[in-house]
Amino acid sequence: MPKRSRLLLAGTLALLLLGSSLPVSRALYTAHDTMVSADPTDATPHVVDGKVDAILPMGNRIYVGGSFTQVRNANESRVITRRGLFALDPATNKVDETFVADFDVNPDRTQDRGIKALAAAPGHNELFVGGEFGTLNGAAARKLVRLNAVNGALDPTFDVSVSAAVKDLVVHGSRLFLAGDFTSVGGQPRGGLAAVDAGSGALDGDVATAFSVPRQGNEPRVETIAVTPDGSTLVAAGNFTEVGGQSRWQVALVDVGSRPARVIDWQTDRFDDRDLGQYRCSAAFDSHPRDVDVSPDGAYFVVVTTGAYTSRGSLCDTASRWELGARGSGLQPTWVDYSGGDSFTAVAVTGAAVYVGGHSRWLNNPKSDGSNQTATPGPGSVTREGIAALDPASGLPLPWNPGRVRGEGAWAIASTPDGLWVGSDTDKTGGWTAPGCEGCEFHQKLAFFPLAGGAAVAQPQPIGLPAELLSVGAAGLVKRSFDGAALGAPVALGTAGDGGRVRGAFWLAGRLYEGRDDGRVLRWGYDGTTFGEAAEVDLRGLPPSHQNHNAIMYGFPVADVTGMFYDGGRLYYTVAGDRRLFYRYFLSQPNAADDVVGAQVLVASGAGDGLDWSRVQGMTAAGGAIYWSEGADLRRVDFAAGQPRAGTVTTVARSVNLDARGLFLLPPGGGAPLPPGGPGGALPPGAVNPAAVGPSGYWMVDERGTVSSFGDAVHHGDIGTAAAGQRVVAVDLEPTPTRQGYWVVDNDGRVFGFGDARYLGGVAAGAMAKGEKVTSMSTTRTGAGYWLFTTRGRALPFGDAHFHGDMAKVALNGPVLDSIPTPSGNGYYMVAADGGIFSFGDARFAGSMGGKKLNAPVQSLVPDPDRGGYWLVASDGGVFAFDAPSRGSMGAVRLNKPVTGMVPYGNGYLMVGEDGGIFNFSNRAFLGSLGANPPARPIVSVAGFG
C-alpha cells in the first residue's frame, strides 16, 4: 500500500511555499548525511485507533493520514476526533486543531477504508488526499480531493472522478500522478496509472499506459509509485504482469518524460514466482510489492515485498535494490535482503540509509527454520524487529536498531531535514532490548526519530594504485610497493609466526580482516605500522561449508579460502579446489560487533566464463583489476561492475613467490594511525608488536576555552579564536586517538575541533530542556565519533558513536557531571554529583557513592587500566576506589581551589584544580601546572596520555 508521496520540482527537492499562515521551513523527503537517532522523540502525538498509512511533511506542518478516528497529544488525556487525517506542528509536537478534514474512514483493518496517500500541491497552500472514502466533513467526496492546508476545507475547483481507490500519489512539476486499482479517471479509460494537471484536474492524455493481466485474481492495479528527481522515470509496482502490452511481472519502469509516456526497456523475472504450474509465494496475496522508493540522487530504487517465505530465488518478503540506469531483459538486483518469511510494508531511501518497516523479526535471513508463525532465525541472521536501516551499498542491516512492536507493519516512512517520521498500526517504538519489544517506548502509531544524535554511516572507499602490497603467509608479514605493473623489493615486517594459518585477508578503512584455518574471521585496527586489539567477526551461525536451500547458497568455508578482497559492499573469495569466484555482501563498521557477513553466497565468475580460480594463493583488487598469486607468479584480470572480464588475464610479475593466502593492499604510507594493541590483544601472525614508547602529556582548558598544554601534548588552538564574539562556557576537552588534536565542548553543546579533530555535530539550539546543560564529552576509539552528556543524564551520540541508553527519563538526585567510554567503545559510564554511577552497554557496574553522605560533590570518573574498575574524585580531592587499587587523594589537604577534573595517567590518575594546580597519583612524571600562575577563569577539565 502507498506510504507517502513526493513533491518534485525542476528535478530537485523543493520547498513548498505556503504563505504567511504556513511559512517555509522544510523540504520534502530530504536526503540525509547520517542515520537518524534510534531514540524517538517523546512528545509526538498518539494515534489512538486504526493505523497510519501516509505522512506528508509540508511547510511547517506534518500531515498524517490513515484509518484512525482519534488522536491525542502526548501527556494529555483529552482525545481529539480526527477521522483519517490530521496536521501537527513539529515545533510543538501538538495537533493543529484549526485543521479539520474528517473522512468516513473505518479503523477496523478488515474494512480497508481510509486515507492511503498524500501529496503537496505545487504553488498552492493545498494538499492532495487519496484513498478509499466517500465523504469529507459530511459532504460527498470520492477517492481524490484537494484541501486547504490551513483549515482542511475542500477545494471545489479541483474535481477529478476516479473509478476505484487511489493507492499512491506523486506530484512533479504541474503533474499529479495517481496509482490504484481504478479503470477510469476523468471518465476516460486508465488502467492503474494516470496523471492529471495539478491545478485544473484535467486528465493528462500523455500518460495512458495500461497496467493489465493481474498476477492473480481479476483486478489488476498499481499499488505504489515513485518518480525520479528529474521527473523522467516513474517506477510502478503492483498486481500486473503486462504493461503497455509488454511482459512486466509486478514491477515496471515508465518514461513519463517522453510524450506520450512509454514503457522502458527494463525487465526482470525475479518477481515472476511461477514454478512448475504453481506460485512459489503465498496465494493469499494477489501481488507482493508493498512499497517502492527512489534514491535522492536518482541512481536506484528499492522495492519491498510481502508474500511469505521465499523459495527458488523469488523475491517475496525481501527488500531489493535495482539500478535505474540498467536496460534489457532478465535484469538482476544489486542486492537482496531476506527476512526469512516476514513482510516488509514500507521503505524510504535517504542516501545515508535505506529504512524499511514491516513485521520482520530478522534480516540477512534467507534460510528460515519453521513457518512464519513459529520460525527461528536462520544462519547469518541479524535481529531487527519491525523496523531497520539497511546499508545502501550491501543491503545489510546497519547498527540502528530502535525496535517496534511488529503488528502488521510500519506503513509510512517520511524523511525531513530534522529526521524521520514513521507511521504504523502498533503502539510501541524505540528502546528495543528483547524480542517482543516489551520494554519499548509508548508511541501510538506515530514516531519521530530526530537526525540530531544520529550516527554517521561508514562509507569505505576503494584503495587506488599505487599502493603497498602486503602478504601474510608462511614467510611472515612482507611489504612491497606496487603500482599495478611493477612490484618493489620485499620488506619483512615480521617473522613467520603462524602466518601459514591465514586463509585470505583484506584491509578496509583502517581495519585488517583475516580468515583463519580454524574457520574464524578476525579483524585488527591496522595502519601499516601499528596493530590494535584483535576482535572476532561474528559469523552468526553460518555453517563452515557451502550449502543450498531452495536454490539459495549459504555457508562460509573460511578454512578452505585461498584469497579474499572487498569491493563495493561485497566480499569476494575463492575456495581451494573450486573453479568459481564467489561473493557475498559484507558490512564493515567501526565496532566489530556491528560487522555483518552476508548469508547468501553468489557466483561472480568461473561458471561458464572460461576463468579458473582454483589455483589462487592470495588475492586482492584495486584500480579496476583483480590481482592474485598463482604458483610463483602475480596475475591480473580486468574487473568491472562486479565481474572479471574473461580474455584480459595477464601476468604482472613472474617468479615473485608471494607464498601467501593473505594478500592485501594499503594506501601509500598506510592508513590513519591507530592506538596499539592493549594487554592481551592478539597480533596478526608474523607481525611486529610496536610497543608503545613513552610520550606523555596533558592539556587543561578553562571556562573561556583557553587551552594550556604540558609535556608532549601539543597546543592546537583555543575557543577564543574559533568562536570570536560568541559567549562560551567550556566544560570539557577530549583528545583524538592520534593525540594530534582535541575537541572542546561548551555547556550549550557546541563542539569546537582543533588539529585533526573533525566536527561531527553538536546540540541543536532549543534541543535541551530549560536549565539542562552539557557537562561532558566522551570519544570513540576511532576518533570518528563522540557522545555529549547533559546534566539530566542524556547521552547524545555523533559520528560512529552508538546510543546505549541514558538517564533522561529518571529523576536524578544530582546532575550528571562526567562520563567515560568503556575500553571496547561499546558502552559508557556516567557519574552524578551525588556519586551515583550509571553504566550502559558493556560498562560493568562496580559500585558507587550514590545514597552515601559526601563532604563534597563528585566531579569525575576515571577507569582503572589494570582491574577494570574505576576511581571517583570529589571537589575536595577525596578519591573513592571501586575494584581499583588505592593511589592516594587530596581529601586530607586544604586546597586553594576545588578539584574540577581527573584524568587517567600512567597506572593511576592526575587531578586538576580550578586554579590549574595538578596533583599526580601515578607512575608517570609531573609535567607542570598553572598553580603558580592561575588563569583568570577557572580550569574546568583536564585530559592527557601516557
Biggest beta sheet attributes: 7 strands, antiparallel
Mean pLDDT: 88
H/I helix tally? 1
Give the percentage of residues in beta strands: 35-45%
Shape category = globular
Q: Return Rg in Å.
A: 30 Å
* Strand count: 78
End-to-end Cα distance, whole Å, is 59 Å
- Counting helices, strands and paired strands, the structural category is mainly beta
Secondary structure: helix percent: under 10%
List the uncertain runs. Answer: 1-28, 672-683, 685-693
Could you please describe the fold and organization of this structure?
This protein has 946 residues and is mainly beta. It contains 1 helix and 78 strands. Strands 48, 49, 50, 51, 52, 53 and 54 form a 7-stranded antiparallel sheet that branches. The longest helix has 4 residues, at 719-722.
Key terms for this structure?
five-stranded mixed sheet; 946 residues; mainly beta; globular; seven-stranded antiparallel sheet; 0% helix
In summary, what is this structure?
With 946 residues, the chain is mostly beta strands. Strands 48, 49, 50, 51, 52, 53 and 54 form a seven-stranded antiparallel sheet that branches. Strands 2-1-15-16-19 form a five-stranded mixed sheet, with no helix packed on it. Strands 55, 56, 57, 58 and 59 form a five-stranded antiparallel sheet that branches. The radius of gyration is 30 Å and the shape is globular.
